[in-house]
Amino acid sequence: MPKLVKHLLLIVLPLLAVFAVAPAVYQNHLLLFNFVIFLILAQGVNIIYGFTGYLPFGYVGFFGAGAYGFAIMVMHLQMPAALAVLAAGVVGVVLGLLLTPLLRLTGAYFAIANLAASLAVLHLVANPALESITKGPYGVSLTGTFNPTLAYEAALVVLALTLGAVVYLRNSSFGLALQAVREDPVSAAMAGVDVVRMRMVAWLASALVAGLAGGVYAWYVSVFYPDNVFSGEFSIFAIVFALFGGVATILGPIVGVLILYGVYNLIGFTTPQYFQLIYGLLIMGLVLFLPAGLMSLATRRGWHVP
Amino acid sequence: MLTYALVAGVLFGLYFSLVGIGLNLVFGVMRIVNLAHGDIIMLGGFIALGVVTLASVDPLFAVPLAFVVFVLAGLALYYVLVPRLQGASNPEMLSIILFFGLSQVIEAITTIFAGTSERSIQSRLLGTVFTTIRVKWFGGKPGPGGPIHILGQGFPAPWVIAAATSLVAIGLVYVYLYRTRLGTLTRAVMSRRDEALATGIDVDRVSAAAFGIGLGLAAMAGVFAPFMFGSITPAFGADATVTSFAIVVLGSLGNPLGTALGGIVYGVCYMLVQTYLSSWADLLPYVLLILILLLRPSGLLGRRVRVA
Fold first, then answer.
1. A3-300, which class in CATH?
2. Where are chain A's structural domains?
3. A124 touches chain B (CB under 8 A)
4. Which CATH code of 1.20.272, 1.10.3470, 1.20.950, 2.160.20 fits the domain covering B2-295?
């Protein structure tokens, strides 16, 4: 059995199955939905950071743009929700295309420019001068399309798509080429890898995933403000979850989300500053003591991690 | 109106230079992205607040205090965090995440002790030491010094004091970098770290000094933050970090003195947009940052340091 099929059958299918039946046995629907969203975002970060080494510090820009893309399609064009989610993905890709020049930057420069780009999109959307289009800082309300059950299923579809992309990257020469570019772009180019095109494909795939996630998120919550959907926490959480598990693997980001987001919800929201303190310390400890993620514990012993 | 915007821009610009210069020193020497920079500025603001409420003296006294406290804190923090980080495979990337964690910790601890409410200091308190000296030595009547007049326009005294202090601080950074032995070594590490190491420079000591001074300068800038921005909250740090980045990148990352120019350009743009297009003012730092990164990645004064 090829590895690709094995990964699909042994990792992706069980995960999707668990999240598909979970609402029937577990009451907190919103929590499950958030798990799915963070699984999508962490894998989206995995696609761009894990496989190409570009740290998308403003990843939430695509997510927020997708959410607003959904909202504008529904508000102004009366699009059905499922179609508007696709439009949200398109918005993510378009924003990704607009930001492709950023890929010329490397390292910290890229991360900072990406952060600035996401904040620029936030301030554009939240600008009172554009109230007629985006409702500015006053937020949107899409009660007409409110349907959490369907939105949850749509999120599962997006998750399946994302996981499929990561499984493909993990098991294809394309993914291998991307990792070669990450390690040494010059040598990769010498070996016949089309560096620019490959980076761009990974970048747009990751933007598409975040845009779709933003769309289903907007569908699910239906009432939101710019500060909600452009909250830097989405980028940070997605990056930390992916890193905690270990990037450039299929399993790493999944384990990261399940453990860390689980812990997050166990600690609870009652005293946000204590949570923030613990979280900050956790991040610092992670970077100092386990920079390659949980999965590196296994790879260090020579075990293969999918 | 235009003169006002330009002069205010220069005053703010000088202050913004001080805000950014510490970040640039740290990045230039260690290639570490200090995302907690804004939080150090915020803590500087709280030191000013503490000096005013506990000792009720001129907040100007908080400037040396904040500097010394954070130079020491910076040295300690350097030896705890940085050597371990430098050992990892991709220190530049990981530093972003590490210092993000640190900024969360600082923000959380400050919130636990100080709450989330906005704190401000009466602006007439800043510079009272000058009035006292004037009254004592030259006579005259005590009382708050009103606005200071430059080119026929009145500006709030705190703006002028902050700008003057920034000018002095930047001058001192220049003297440190170009007229002292440690400064020369610092510049050597900035231009080529591995060669500096090979010539026997104690890179760790030089870096620790730069890290301490960088944090000290940020805290100094923070003392004026309550006056320049009206008030501070524990959450002030994140915005301050992005603004500092815009300034630093504008000047050129890795060249601390370029930051002075970057700050002034930023300050003047900020005031012009604020005056003529106020609803778009929030967008400015981000758009400016992206444009500069794309068009002139090495900054306005930069040598070509970046290898793409």
1. mainly alpha
2. 3-300
3. yes
4. 1.10.3470
User: Measured in whole angstroms, how far is the alpha carbon of residue A251 from the centre of its chain?
Assistant: 15
Distance CA B226, CA A304 (A): 54
Q: Which residue of A has its CA nearest to B277?
A: A129
Those residues with Cβ within 8 angstroms of residue A80's Cβ, 6 or more apart along the chain or in another chain = A145
Q: Which residues of B touch A104 (CB under 8 A)?
A: 294, 297, 308
Sign of the torsion angle spanned by Cα atoms B196, B198, B199, B204: positive
User: A249 CB contacts (<8 Å, ≥6 apart)?
Assistant: A46, A50, A170, A295, A305, A306
Residue A71 phi/psi, 5° resolution? Answer: -60, -45
Interface residue of A123, A184, A233, A271 to substitute, partner B, most B CBs within 10 Å: A123
Following CA atoms A192, A197, A200, A201 in sequence, which dihedral angle do they give, to the nearest 10 degrees?
Answer: -90
Give the global pTM.
0.82
Ordered mean pLDDT values, 10 residues apiece, chain B (308 residues): 83 90 88 88 90 81 90 93 81 83 90 80 72 67 62 77 90 90 90 87 91 94 86 81 80 76 85 78 77 69 46
Quote the CA–CA distance of B143 and B136 in Å, as a whole number.
Answer: 13
Residue with tokens 């939905």: A33
C-alpha closest to that of A203 among A48, A86, A19: A48
Taking alpha carbons only, the member of B19, B33, B286 closest to residue A115 is B286
Alpha helices in chain B (DSSP H): 2-30, 37-50, 62-86, 91-114, 128-138, 157-179, 181-191, 193-198, 203-228, 236-251, 258-276, 284-295
Separation of CA A180 from chain center? 23
pLDDT digits (tens, 9 = 90+) for A125-176: 988 888 888 888 888 888 888 888 999 999 999 999 999 999 999 989 999 9
Cα distance between residue A183 and residue A178, in whole Å: 9
Nearest chain A residue to B306 by CA distance is: A106
A25 membership: H or E segment, kind and range = helix A13-25
- Give residue limits of the domains in chain B: 2-295
